[in-house]
Amino acid sequence: MKALKIVTICTLLMSLLIGCGAKGDRYDTVMENKKLVLGVSADYPPFEFHATVDGKDEIVGFDIELAKEIAKDLGVPLEIKDMKFDSVVASVPTGKIDIAISGMDPTPDRQKAMDFSKPYYVAEAGVIVRAEDKDKYKSPEDMKGLKVGVQKGSTFEDVIGQIPEAKAELLNKVNDLVLALETKRIDAVLVEKPVAKSYEANRKELAVADVVLKPASDGYAVGMRKDSPKLVEAVNKTIDRLKAEGKLDQFITEATELAESGE
Q1: Higher pLDDT residue, 29 or 124?
Q2: What's the longest Cα–Cα distance across the chain?
């Protein structure tokens, strides 16, 4: 019994220590660890995607360039973790990653779980369809009752509600959604407009329909653990600097060109 009590006490102490370690401004954790750990779902060109650079597979894109600038301003190297989108969201509160930059909208539910920077990019929805169907769809009403694919965990799960009686197909990877569209298992895919344009440019069998859908939020933002005002301030300073320098426009243009090149 005495040994059991000692084990129990040790377990409780470890739990307390772990709990204490999970608290505090994440800025301090980044400085202590001497690195910034970024979480992304790298299947969302031009924001984050895999590309061959100098013969090597690398994760590149608009969000990656933003993360590099944040790390540079913090004076630490950047470490990138590629995971499913819903895992990115879940990994911020648990401390598995320091920041999440993955085409993420600060929805009310997400704001309960993490802090957010100011918006760095305002989202617009793009509707990918098969090229032969492009002229069929000019409005959400034209898409009534269609089977529409959206990335699981993305805010396009909400946007799809603007299409009357749409049947949602939820998958983890945008590439899988596009494949389902190409093989006629679904009728359309909702993604970020630059992402839709990228797929249209690279695949002649696909097109972006002239359907206008309202954004789900005021823009993409960087997600961080709750109660991290110092890290939020640092990230916002980087965003302000990049906006003033015109770098964000440069990043989205270059990332889109890289995605469209198919490299």
Answers
A1: 29
A2: 77
Tell me how far apart the alpha carbons of residues 150 and 180 are, in angstroms, rounded to a whole number: 11
Name which of 74, 65, 116, 72 is nearest 92 in CA terms.
116
Does the pLDDT value for residue 6 go beyond 50?
Answer: no
Rounded distance, CA 155 to CA 132, Å? 27
The pairing of beta strand 78-82 with beta strand 36-40: parallel
> Please, are residues 123 and 103 in contact by the beta-carbon 8 Å criterion?
yes
Name the token pair of 220. Answer: 């993409």
In contact, 200 and 131? CB cutoff 8 Å: no
What per-residue confidence (pLDDT) applies to 262? 65
Q: Looking at the predicted structure, is the pLDDT value of residue 18 above 70? A: no
User: Edge-to-edge, what's the strand order for the sheet holding 99-100?
Assistant: 78-82, 36-40, 99-100, 223-225, 114-116
Rounded CA-CA distance 187/168 in Å is 10
What local confidence, expressed as pLDDT, does residue 154 receive? 80
Q: Bridge-partner residues for 207, per DSSP?
A: 129
* Closest by CA position to 163, among listed 223, 212, 207, 198: 212
Whole-model pTM: value is: 0.69
Among 51, 215, 10, which residue's Cα sits nearest to residue 121?
215
For residue 232, pLDDT beyond 70:
yes
pLDDT digits (tens, 9 = 90+) for 162-194: 999 999 999 988 889 999 999 999 999 998 888
SS3 sequence of 99-157: EECCCCCCCHHHHHHEEECCCCECCCEEEEEEHHHHHHCCCHHHHCCCEEEEECCCCHH
Q: How far apart are CA 260 and CA 204, in angstroms?
A: 12
